[in-house]
Amino acid sequence: MNSLRTSQYNLRRREQRARESLDERFQRRSARNAADRLRRARARSDQQMANRVNSQAETNVSEHDCGMMTEICNFCQALYWRNELNSSNKYTKCCHDGKVRLPNLAETPDLLKEFLTNNSLEARNYQNHIREYNAALAFASMVAEVKSPPANGPYCFRIHGHIYHRIAPLYSNERFKPGYGQLYIFDASEANSRRLENNPSCLSSVMEKLDALLRTINPYAKSYLQMHQLIQSNPTVNVKMIFMEHLDLDMRRYNAPTSRTEVAAIFVGDDGEPPANRDICIYPIGEGCKNISPLNQCNDPMVYPLLFPRGEQGWSNEMEHVEERRSAKRNRVTQLQFYAYRLSVRSGFSLLHSSGKLFQQYVVDAYVKTEGSRLNYIRLNQKDLRVEFYRGLLDALTTRASNNNLRVGKLVILPSSFQGSPRSMQQNYQDAMAMVRKFGRPDLFVTFTCNPSWPEILNAMQGRERPENRPDIVVRV
Question: pLDDT class for 76, splitting at 50, 70, 90?
């Protein structure tokens, strides 16, 4: 019915236009054009009004700013932003609510502070090649598969796989060139020439100054030189040097030491018992390098002499919580708590946070050691983790191995409580799908990218620090 009416209306309209004169047709078209112009003008006016309202609304939105790091922990004096309060209105990421109390790092030597804060040729070279300087002057090596990000951007220290720390005997042999702690028994000029052969981008003047500094204040350099002098004076006696994990052990377990520095004891003779598994033992001659346990407190100062030039000790499993704040369940400082305390920002100059690329390496090394300790705990405590619930999986593997005439090894179950494990990822996925089943599909997927030029990040930088070298600040902002 409606289509019939429409066709009849169009027919009458065509007949009417056919009968109208030229003047009538001109007036009709002029009125139509005027109406179109008025309609377009009104549409433009409405659009301009809407844009004006939107611009006013955008300018009224204040930019979010975390402000300055003005909040201070009452226990360890760590600096925080106000929004970093936890659910209990406390700052606990630094010292675990006062349970962790570590000795302060020694004052930074003037030479290192000058290299990290000045803009001279030597200072710029030191800042750009600080990892090479540290590796050349280290007492132990760090072995890892370093894989740079596949793009052109700021420097980023990234590894693949595991990290190994290795130490060499006192004297090198024909197969290996002298390196690391072996160079501290040489004359300073000869040692620096050998270091510069492997690090051509380093400056000779900077290397000489750093070598002289470490020979003066570093206890490990003194220990190596003292052992060398003792061997030269007693060439027929067996000598070994032990960097012990616990310096207060009963020395009657071994032969009485003839010499002892701040960090090591030098023993003469081979009648004593061998040191503990985690102690570092340096022999005069050996076959290649030996691995250092990541649980040894000498690990960090021997690998990073430019971060701990005075030989400050690292984490030890004997560190305990503050007595008045410890709990009945746990009373020892974990690796995570130790490094969280060390990486916390406090007022004053920090050699650790100002070391640029070397600080990135130290953070990655600390994370890998902490994660390795967690994996080792899971490996040694399978019964406590109730892995008998995976009995069906064990039976399936045993059956498959017997059918293929294979030997079943020791199976280690990685539970979902370990972040980043396949079971953890699967559990998170199932939780997300449960929310979708309950509330429906999500409407928005919101993400944003961090800008290193945010004022909170720039205000937290000190001296010549750059945002890419302070991942601790970036991730907190």
Answer: very high
DSSP 68-94: ---EE-TTT-BEE-GGG--TTS---TT
To which H or E segment does residue 280 belong?
strand 280-282
Instruction: Lowest mean pLDDT of 40-49, 73-82, 110-119, 346-355, name the range.
Output: 40-49
Cβ(303)–Cβ(289) below 8 Å? no
Q: Which residues of 316-325 are buried (b: 16+ CB within 10 A; e: fewer)?
A: beebebbeee
Stated pTM of the model: 0.81
Question: Is residue 386 within 8 Å of residue 417, measured between CB atoms?
Answer: no
Residue 404, helix vs strand vs coil = coil
Length of the chain (residues): 477
CA distance 342 to 3: 83
**Among candidate residues 184, 276, 285, 293, the one with its CA nearest the CA of residue 238:** 285
CA distance linking residue 398 with residue 339, whole number of Å: 41
State what percent of residues in the chain have pLDDT above 70. 89
- Quote the tokens at residue 170: 């006192």
The count of other CB atoms within 10 Å of the CB of residue 241 is 26
Provide the token pair at 268.
Answer: 């003469």
The amino acid that residue 354 corresponds to is S
The three-point CA angle 358-361-364 to 5° equals: 155
CA distances from residue 341 to 100, 119, 346, 386 in whole angstroms, order as listed: 8, 30, 10, 32
Q: Of all helices (H) and strands (E), which one includes residue 241?
A: strand 239-243
- Which burial class, exposed, middle or buried, applies to 388 when counting CB atoms under 10 A from its CB (0-12, 13-18, 19+)? exposed
Count Cβ atoms within 10 A of the Cβ of residue 230 and give its class: 0-12 exposed, 13-18 middle, 19 or more buried.
middle
Q: Which residues make beta-bridge pairs with 141? A: 166
The DSSP string of 294-307 is TT-TTHHHHH-TTT
Beta carbons of 73 and 80 less than 8 angstroms apart:
yes
For CA atoms 458, 461, 466, 472, the dihedral sign is negative
Distance between CA 43 and CA 21 in Å, rounded?
33
Query: Both tokens of residue 362?
Result: 């130290």
- Give me 304's structure tokens: 């990073």
Q: Mean per-residue pLDDT for 141-156?
A: 87
Amino acid at 222: K
pLDDT tens for residues 422-462? 889 999 999 999 999 999 988 888 888 889 999 999 999 98
CA dist 251 and 243 (Å) reads 13
